[in-house]
Amino acid sequence: MRGVLTLAGEGTRMLPWTRGLRKEFLPLYDRSGDHAPVLKPVAHHVLETLVDAGATDITLVVGAKDRAFVQQYFTIDRPFLTRHAHHADRLQETERFYDTLGRLKLKFVVQPAPRGFGDAVWRARRAVGNEPFLLHAADAVLLEPSRGRLLRRMAARRDREDLDAVLLVRHVADPRRYGVVEGRFSGREDTSRVLTVSGMQEKPERPRSAWAATAVYAFSPRVFHALAAVAKTDHPRELEVTDAIRWMLGNGGRVEALVLKPTEGTWRSVGSPDGYLRALKDTQRRTQGPTRTPTRR
Asked: CA of 202: how far to CAs of 198, 206, 238, in Å?
């Protein structure tokens, strides 16, 4: 399965930190292979989520000035392990990460300028090819008892029903800050409720529902046609994934959404100082609680 991981935004809400360092590399807690608390960058968490969902061919979309740094982090560095071999106990999680990287096909694609989430996805089209894929923004984490389960469920739904897209939505108190999804309940996928999506708005002043989309999607390759059509006809200053979903819905496409239940997972963004603090505290609590269900490898 293919996956796309986007790290191309400028992160202006996190200045001055993001003037020199990417928000996607802010540290969050996780458990190591022996269940001890460790710190990992957000993007590291997200890559492992895609892997546990079944992705083995992953494209990372990065800004031009960040490519070298991002590529270095996601490249196996055996000399580093040799230099620090006298601290073998500290290298266990790095070695486990390198083992994961060694089983993946990673591609790095540059987004020349920050022109929207949709434009970042568009940049991955040649790397993805005519294949379905999972999409996850790298400035947020999906925290689950069993990592990757919800994305596997989304991919299964997309493939079985031949859908253009499957979204993951959550109920929020103030949907004006999000991409808002309209739809009706139409069944279940395992334990998740399913919405048949009829519309989507980006940060509307008067939301038509309280269902907010997370930045996690299971797409068919038809999304690239939709993004190209929007770019050609609307010429937006920033191309958004929401634009492509609306275009697909208006042109006979079929889109569904799974509802994120609190018992099945929590969505945490690190795009703002308060959001990052919540994510940090949440991941710290999780590493100090009962041992989670082991992830698939």
From this structure: 14, 11, 12
